[in-house]
Amino acid sequence: MDMPFTFINSAMSADGKISTKERKQVRISGDVDFDRMDDLRATSDAVMVGIGTILADDSSLTVKSEARRSSRKSKGYDENPIRIVIDSKARTPLDADIFIKGEGKRIIAVSGSAPADKVEMLQQKALVIKTGYEQVDLCALMKELSSMGIRRLMVEGGATLNWAMLSSGLVDEVYSFVGNLLIGGTSAPTLVGGVGFVENDILPLKLMSLEKMDEGVLLKWAVINDV
Ligand SMILES: NC(=O)c1ccc[n+]([C@@H]2O[C@H](COP(=O)([O-])OP(=O)(O)OC[C@H]3O[C@@H](n4cnc5c(N)ncnc54)[C@H](O)[C@@H]3O)[C@@H](O)[C@H]2O)c1
Ligand SMILES: Nc1nc(=O)c(N)c(NC[C@H](O)[C@H](O)[C@H](O)COP(=O)(O)O)[nH]1
């Protein structure tokens, strides 16, 4: 079965950090990049984040431009893409912005280790898809998303989910805005977290484009998965 075309979009400091060591969100990019990100959301079938990002930022993942929402509507889509949270243990708060803000479908992807009572509560607000035992089986989930008609998937981090998706060979392209600031801190999350690749498995990229944007640079990379 064809997997969805999947890309990561992220903003990082000049030293590769995507937030501070306290997981506090930092404004890394400017208005032009935020508008580009909004367009990516509006033209995707679904937007995915990890539970760490929901807990840290309370992201709503909505399309901000009214014109883009109307354009989606006029084509018969919901105003917002399907919003997906990778949440093995069903920790998404019931009052999270992702449930409160904007119309459209939500998917909470949980694993067999999620408490049944919380899963039941989440089912009132979203489609809950269960895969894996201790944590979400991302390959199985992606197949299920594909069978639901999701063809274009935007992944908005954070570091742990980026790692899990990349190391499972599920990402086609990475778009990374590099901003004009340094965040520092060994424990501050970087674009890709997780356990990291070992020398022989390091993932190669092919540079597709680079563009000066706001006060930084937008880099677009294709992931070379088949080496
Ligand atoms: N600058 C940016 O573009 C940007 C974008 C998004 C998030 N962030 C930042 O990233 C930070 C959050 O990143 P993070 O790494 O803590 O959390 P994350 O958002 O990557 O979520 C990670 C969590 O996903 C869950 N998970 C479920 N199944 C999994 C699987 N199969 N593999 C891996 N994880 C799985 C785990 O509970 C894990 O803790 C926040 O500080 C946020 O502000 C920055
Ligand atoms: N492009 C970009 N530039 C930044 O400077 C920055 N800090 C983020 N961060 C992305 C992160 O995923 C946020 O959580 C969502 O941008 C929140 O999304 P909402 O506004 O709640 O829809 N993204």
TrEMBL record:
InterPro entries: DHFR-like_dom_sf (IPR024072), Rib_reduct_arc (IPR006401), RibD_C (IPR011549), RibDG_C (IPR002734), Riboflavin_Biosynth_HTPR (IPR050765). Gene3D superfamilies: Dihydrofolate Reductase, subunit A (3.40.430.10). GO terms for biological process: riboflavin biosynthetic process. It comes from Methanococcoides vulcani. It is an enzyme of class 1 (oxidoreductase). This is 2,5-diamino-6-(ribosylamino)-4(3H)-pyrimidinone 5'-phosphate reductase. It catalyses: 2,5-diamino-6-(1-D-ribitylamino)pyrimidin-4(3H)-one 5'-phosphate + NAD(+) = 2,5-diamino-6-(1-D-ribosylamino)pyrimidin-4(3H)-one 5'-phosphate + NADH + H(+); 2,5-diamino-6-(1-D-ribitylamino)pyrimidin-4(3H)-one 5'-phosphate + NADP(+) = 2,5-diamino-6-(1-D-ribosylamino)pyrimidin-4(3H)-one 5'-phosphate + NADPH + H(+). Residues 4-219 form the Bacterial bifunctional deaminase-reductase C-terminal domain. Homodimer. Keywords: NADP, Oxidoreductase, Riboflavin biosynthesis. Pfam families: RibD_C (PF01872). Belongs to the HTP reductase family.
